[in-house]
Amino acid sequence: MSLTVLQGAVEQGFIYSLVALGLYLSYRTLDVADLTTDGSFTLGAACSAILTIGGHPVQGLLLALAAGALAGFVTALLQTRLGVQPILAGIVTMTGLYSVNLMVMGGRSNLNMLKEANVFTAAEGLLGPAGKLVLAGILALLVGAGLALFLRTQLGLSIRATGDNREMVAASSIDPAFTTTVGLCAANAMVALSGGLLVQYQKFSDISLGTGMVVIGLASLIIGEVVMGRRSVVRGVAAALVGAVIYRIIIATALVSTKVGAQNFKLVSAVIVAAAISWPAIREELRFYQLRREVERNG
Predict the structure, then answer these.
(1) In angstroms, rounded to a whole number, what is the distance separating the alpha carbons of residues 271 and 243?
(2) Could you read off the pLDDT of 125-146 as tens digits, one per residue?
(3) Would you say 247 and 219 are in contact if contact means Cβ atoms under 8 Å apart?
(4) Burial track 206-245 (b if 16+ CB lie within 10 A, e otherwise)
């Protein structure tokens, strides 16, 4: 694999790591299977693309953050106030966002941004060829550090406690509906920011951009947890960042080494995702097999 391909994989890994961070907050911390992710990723992409075309790329990223938080709020409202099951609430919001995303994009299914200036072209203008990598890395580290610090605040500790034991939290005069809402808003804001960054990085937006993003984010998170562990908040955040980069490098390596066509990209991704998600179970089976062999050998 060439240095250019490797750099591109790392750059995309940093961008997608925001999705893994969002899922770390919703799935690992709050213990909520939030399927809003696919829709909020595309929503952030659409908002960023429209404002970038209008000459305001930075404001596009800020709008992506706000729009993602709003999507998370709708899902939280369905869960906490209307009694909808978490998975169904995410599906409902994600389904509705498809039409919203089309409206944001002016009724078009894709937008071309090849001639538009954005935050990455500005970074390249300042730092040269390494500009994209530096900007993506700094943003990922800043968001990761911010999440780690937030989860150590009183509100962050309440969110963590809600994921551990909702009944105990309710008995401790903490409103679990409020902590769930804050957590889902923050998680989807990070996911939408990832979508906003991606469209500026690749210079086009598509209505199907967020398809499968939940699975990809979870695979990145699990890969990172295998490498970094998840016994603390810092390790969990680091796992999301490292796992996303490793995932993109694996994808790039698989595509380059096997020389598969673009039509097979989804198949390669699916195989890697399946391997990453099933690895914890495979590891336990291997440990049990080794333990049984040792018992048989010593017995």
Answers:
(1) 16
(2) 999 989 999 999 999 999 999 9
(3) yes
(4) bbebbebbbbbbbbbbbbbbbebebeebebbbbbbbbbbb
